[in-house]
Description:
By secondary structure, the protein is an alpha/beta fold. 34% of the residues lie in helices and 21% in strands. Bound molecules: flavin-adenine dinucleotide (FAD). Flavin-adenine dinucleotide binds at residues 53-59, 76-79, 84-86, 116-120, 293-295, 328-330, 333, 358, 360, 453, 458-459, 462-463, 489-490, 497-502.
Amino acid sequence: xxxxxxxxxxxxxxxxxxxxxxxxxxxxxxxxxxxxxxxxxxxxxxxxxxxxxxxxxxxxxxxxxxxxxxxxxxxxxxxxxxxxxxxxxxxxxxxxxxxxxxxxxxxxxxxxxxxxxxxxxxxxxxxxxxxxxxxxxxxxxxxxxxxxxxxxxxxxxxxxxxxxxxxxxxxxxxxxxxxxxxxxxxxxxxxxxxxxxxxxxxxxxxxxxxxxxxxxxxxxxxxxxxxxxxxxxxxxxxxxxxxxxxxxxxxxxxxxxxxxxxxxxxxxxxxxxxxxxxxxxxxxxxxxxxxxxxxxxxxxxxxxxxxxxxxxxxxxxxxxxxxxxxxxxxxxxxxxxxxxxxxxxxxxxxxxxxxxxxxxxxxxxxxxxxxxxxxxxxxxxxxxxxxxxxxxxxxxxxxxxxxxxxxxxxxxxxxxxxxxxxxxxxxxxxxxxxxxxxxxxxxxxxxxxxxxxxxxxxxxxxxxxxxxxxxxxxxxxxxxxxxxxxxxxxxxxxxxxxxxxxxxxxxxxxxxxxxxxxxx
Length: 520
Ligand SMILES: Cc1cc2nc3c(=O)[nH]c(=O)nc-3n(C[C@H](O)[C@H](O)[C@H](O)COP(=O)(O)OP(=O)(O)OC[C@H]3O[C@@H](n4cnc5c(N)ncnc54)[C@H](O)[C@@H]3O)c2cc1C
């Protein structure tokens, strides 16, 4: 009563997990089909050229699809590699951030960190399409790991599985109590009440008196203090966390993260590093890319679009021209590039989208103590420390030798704070906070590398940040064709901060350009 569908699904999720939410969404008709459709341009592009600014996924998918339709394409890309934010750092890689701090990655051979994207939802159909087309191998990323922790500065640390069971048990006990005392009279008939009480008993692990309590039965869900064994060892029951501890420490709050639509099982990551998709596109579009080409000016006239760029290899200034232009440069940078011939409305809108701050650190440890000592295989531990979260490698389980974890990942003011430190201080702070969760980290730390996204020269931020007002007022302008010029990139999608957004934006830009070119 008076509960929105979103809130209702949130409650279902909290109590029943992502499978329950998905089932409920399907029942409610909310499990939506994909908005991706492969561009069907035919062969009408011959004799026309499209200039593409930026060689991230949005730029490369545009070039790939346009080229198939016969268009001439050219990509101007700032870096000496394609992929933009789709970036993997490996041992030996050097990274110089805005402001001049240079870091050289010291990871061992075969180890890496993905400083930007790292997870691929199965609901991202454009990504899955190109993964199939290019043979990009995916492995499962366990977004929800019952054995990873929820940690609080107060000192509370609990395995997520135990916490989920305890929350479900306590909520069920409370509801059973309310029902038994007729507190919900009028909401339910007598028959419904009996059925719901029976359901709560099973679903909430309640005993015959409808209590959630310490027992071997409860432990068969939340785990034991000592596991069952052979012969006369039935196991030692574990003690549930009290509801008071759960709510006082907001422990439940981090359980919801894994229930978000895009995190529903199955989540993937490309084998060997997130850049596998970028490399697959690059292999198919390399011939069109001018690397180390920094766009410094954009001019649109009646016949086309001209970009002036600095050739960073030779230090010379050059121009490139197309009959049409797809610009995928992040708005944080594009807003600083002079332009003429774009509509004043678009020029104004480009300046109005702030970029979200984010920070990540990759930490190499001398042994995989999270597996060997704590049986954590992949997944994410959440904490209320400023490091945000910790994520364990979802590959090479039980391998001997070193391992790299995502030692910190956060957004907002904490990200700004970490980015403001020098790389050495950042790692020290991340290590201190990692130790609070895993004391072994102190002895096992080897080396690390960090990326503060506001200091990444080719993005100056993590992703385009909209609110209700900017979505309504300026977003439609950013999405529209401006004579011969159109924007693409995650910022022209509703999948902000996802590769899916870049792919959908690129493929839809291609269709819009093709329609305009076909009419001209
Ligand atoms: C911290 C973080 C976490 C993320 N997590 C995920 C995730 O888990 N899963 C997921 O799918 N996505 C994730 N994303 C989002 C994903 O990385 C982006 O949505 C996607 O890569 C954007 O692609 P794009 O082509 O729109 O932009 P970009 O990749 O930014 O491409 C733009 C290109 O323009 C180039 N450029 C910039 N300035 C100029 C210039 N002056 N001249 C010429 N070229 C220029 C850049 O070098 C770059 O190659 C994450 C991103 C970040 C930063």
